[in-house]
């Protein structure tokens, strides 16, 4: 990889490298050619799901794979298309992670194998129209038990995959004990409506939805049996937040690859613009951002695999790497000049998509406060 200047990928085993290479080839041949059209039309290319399933990489984290491998897979997806990477991350990370972390043995057996085969696609519904960063204490969606069923009422927003997902993990506050609980709402459940959010300027291929829940009845068998409060939800987010840091490295690496190739081919004043000092300066700054961030997420993966991974570790990585990503994609657009805003050159798509990656799974400000609390011992959230 041209952006892996310090050859971090050599930390993978030969078997892991083969999985990454197989995924890279699939992305190159099946995703890259359709990425711009899908983004422009804000349509999800359902035909690629079969190819993803054949890669057999969904839920690898819950099947014994190292975090370093799943991190590099996220990086590869984002180098090509952050929208498709987000689709996969929601399914494999948030949805499958919820079932794996909070489901009973029976529930894991019921849902995870089909999700791993991508026969059932998952979504994760936590964010609400009036609740983002403060959702931990302000969750308004309610759950009320009625015999062997639960009645859900409320609304969710920005829920990726929700318009077509087979299983949506809905987080709601139990009216009886005020605890946050998780529920698997299956496609076709009465009272559940997902409406696609239109006119997005980033991650347009991702089918984000507004969800309304009106007296939506879910059986007790679909309540995640080991979700007893928001702390359990936060455990899932801790793991996936580190994945977003990997995403941001992939986004800036993809933009760097494009800018480098363009600079070598684009001729001005009689020579390739890569031969000008100011262009080389931008390329080196981009590479520095990629390399520093990649070093951080590689160590983050090692901490995960060592079992000493904490909230502040993922929060610092998410805040830092996404900030460096924002800079890097801007420099890529600068190198391309006017062509940087034309979709055909791909860089403009990375610039737009970076804005969404920068904000989701915890804003820079919130992640800074999580890290700040860890290093000072003082909370400064309010």
UniProtKB/TrEMBL annotation:
Domain of life (superkingdom): Bacteria
The protein's name: Glutaryl-CoA dehydrogenase
Acyl-CoA oxidase/dehydrogenase middle domain mapped to chain residues: 123-215
Keywords on record: FAD, Flavoprotein, Oxidoreductase
E.C. designation(s): 1.3.8.6
Entry similarity comment: Belongs to the acyl-CoA dehydrogenase family.
Biological process, per Gene Ontology: fatty acid beta-oxidation
Domain Acyl-CoA dehydrogenase/oxidase C-terminal, chain residue ranges per copy: 228-375
Span of domain Acyl-CoA dehydrogenase/oxidase N-terminal: 13-119
InterPro entries, A to Z: ACX4-like (IPR045008), Acyl-CoA_DH_CS (IPR006089), Acyl-CoA_Oxase/DH_mid-dom (IPR006091), Acyl-CoA_Oxase/DH_mid-dom_sf (IPR046373), AcylCo_DH-like_C (IPR036250), AcylCo_DH/oxidase_C (IPR009075), AcylCoA_DH/ox_N (IPR013786), AcylCoA_DH/ox_N_sf (IPR037069)
GO molecular function: flavin adenine dinucleotide binding; glutaryl-CoA dehydrogenase activity
Enzyme class: oxidoreductase
């Amino acid at each position: 990889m041209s952006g892996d200047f310090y050859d971090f990928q050599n930390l993978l085993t030969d078997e892991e490298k083969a999985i990454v290479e197989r995924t890279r080839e699939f992305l190159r041949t099946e995703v890259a050619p359709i990425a711009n059209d899908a983004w422009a039309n804000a349509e999800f290319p359902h035909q690629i799901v079969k190819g993803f399933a054949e890669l057999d990489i969904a839920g690898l984290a819950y099947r014994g794979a190292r975090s370093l491998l799943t991190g590099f897979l996220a990086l590869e997806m984002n180098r090509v298309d952050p929208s498709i990477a987000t689709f996969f991350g929601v399914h494999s990370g948030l949805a499958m992670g919820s079932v794996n972390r909070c489901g009973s043995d029976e529930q894991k057996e019921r849902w995870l194998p089909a999700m791993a085969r991508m026969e059932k696609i998952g979504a994760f519904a936590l964010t609400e129209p009036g609740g983002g960063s403060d959702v931990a204490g302000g969750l308004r969606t309610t759950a009320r038990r009625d015999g062997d069923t639960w009645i859900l009422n409320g609304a969710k927003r920005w829920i990726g995959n929700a318009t077509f997902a087979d299983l949506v993990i809905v987080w709601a506050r139990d009216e009886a004990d005020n605890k946050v609980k998780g529920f698997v709402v299956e496609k076709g459940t009465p009272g559940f409506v997902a409406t696609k959010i239109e006119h997005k300027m980033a991650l347009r291929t991702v089918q984000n939805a507004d969800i309304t829940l009106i007296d939506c009845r879910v059986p007790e068998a679909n309540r995640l049996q080991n979700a007893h409060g928001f702390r359990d939800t936060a455990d899932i987010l801790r793991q996936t937040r580190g994945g977003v840091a990997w995403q941001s490295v992939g986004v800036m690496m993809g933009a760097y690859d494009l800018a480098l190739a363009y600079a070598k081919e684009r001729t001005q004043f009689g020579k390739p613009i890569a031969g000008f000092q100011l262009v080389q300066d931008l390329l080196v700054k981009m590479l520095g951002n990629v390399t520093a961030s990649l070093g951080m997420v590689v160590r983050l993966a090692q901490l995960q695999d060592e079992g000493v991974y904490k909230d502040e570790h993922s929060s610092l990585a998410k805040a830092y790497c996404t900030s460096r990503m924002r800079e890097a994609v801007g420099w890529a657009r600068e190198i391309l000049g006017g062509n940087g805003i034309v979709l055909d050159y791909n860089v403009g798509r990375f610039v737009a998509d970076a804005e969404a990656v920068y904000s989701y799974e915890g804003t820079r400000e919130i992640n800074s406060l999580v890290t700040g609390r860890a290093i000072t011992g003082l909370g400064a959230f309010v």
